[in-house]
Design a protein that fits this description.
Oligomer: single chain
Distance between the termini: 85 Å
Largest sheet: 7 strands, mixed
CATH class of the largest domain: Alpha Beta
Shape: elongated
Length: about 550
Amino acid sequence: MSQLKVIPPQPVRTNSGLGLWNAYFLIKFVMLWLGYLNLQILPNLVFAAVLLVPLGNRKLVILRTLIALPVGVMLFYQDTWLPPISNLLDHPGLMTFGSDYLLELAGRFIDWTLCGWLLLVLVLYRLVYQWLRVTTLTLIGLAWLGAANLLSLQAPPEPAVALATAPGASAKTVSLAEPDNATLNAYLQSFYSAETERRVEFKSPIAGSPPFDLLLINVCSLAWDDIDAVGMRDNPLFQQMDVVFDNFNSVSSYSGPAAIRLLRASCGQSPHSKLYDTPPDQCLLFDDLGKLGFASEVMLNHSGQFEGFLDRVRSQGSLPAPAVSISTLKHQLISFDGSPVWRDNEVLDTWWRHREGESDSRVALFYNTITLHDGNRMLTADGGSRSADYKVRAQTLFNDLNGFITELEHSGRRVVVVIVPEHGAALQGDRMQIAGMREIPSQSITHVPVGIKLVGMGVNPRTSPLHITEPSSFLALSEIVSRLYVAQAEPQGPDWATLLTGLPQTLVVSENAGTVVVNYAGRPYIRIKEKGGWLPYPQRLK
């Protein structure tokens, strides 16, 4: 009698699809559609392929899931517009933020519109996953995005367009080809190569010309975008200026680098990587002024200790210690790190009383104010603090500066007041950054209002400022100062045509450590890593 041989069942490798990972990819599709992601198609296709590999061993499935979870999180972060995490390590001072400010920042990360869309995706997935092969839909979506990406790479280049720049620009003619990585890298390198050759020459004044003081008021967190956000574009402060720059680029979105660029205004724009090197000769504005008889002075309405701001500005700008102590003044604001922020009119009045007692015929003051900095809080009667509204602080600052200019006018002294912001406050944020975040120097942050007011230097017959509409940066400010020093305005007022004609123009290139934004053919492009690719800067959601 023959025996039957029983063959044990063999494990069958089955493929259940992506399972819950479908929700992961569907969320990415929705965020891409809404403009919150820059989805990298190849890494996502590879990730999906690995998840689809059939495994017959349950332990292997669990191991793959444990590995896939952190990989999926990291890939998701890479697909967002958020800056590299390593950038945060370059700013150890961020760890000193007060708890109130940290909670406020955390709240800004919540986008309720996006949350609503994502909840809808999860609910729909839960309803249909039993009846539809969602994995098939996910793969079709990834394949479609991959095909669209390949077609865009194979598209023929646009014809070159000649761009004639105005006199004084860093290049006379720029050939605008297709904005691919090679073109934009070459464009950036050409810009910096041209900028290394640019200098402002300070000449001796006409004999017997009366002296004047120069006040550089460096304002933190003030851009045209912020002024528009709070409805203050037509404010009295800038309406009374003699000159207003409509298209001034402050280059950096952080205080230290922005202040250093102002103090090096006598040379062309340098890359961020060279910003802390020893500057070439004739670059330091206050050194140039010192050779012409100006005594340099410094004042702040804050301690200057955050991230070593004061020490860095002094060492990089060849500046002395603050001229007058303000520690005895009362304050109503505290900074994001809990340190005091003094009222601008009180600090400037204190310095002006000191100035009137000096014998120097010419003084150049660098004044830095953080009244508008994000996270500042108002002290309350009970010893606590509350959030300080930006518009209220801006109105107070403008009133203080208006009052100070009136005080200068009553003094009878000759003074040139230059109001030049470091960067904006990013009040509105955009797709790449939440409100208040300035890791990326977007054009809405570095496009700042700059005004010049001449006090006691002739009667100004105009009722509104002259507007400089060409793309400008710090080199133009240094050039105006040098021209004013040579001409020493006549009693009837300066020759404005001579003063403002042919000012050096500067193409719009903004940069922080590891991040560059350029305006190419009228459109902004961003490169987040030095060896990374260029992408169109996402437009703000309406």
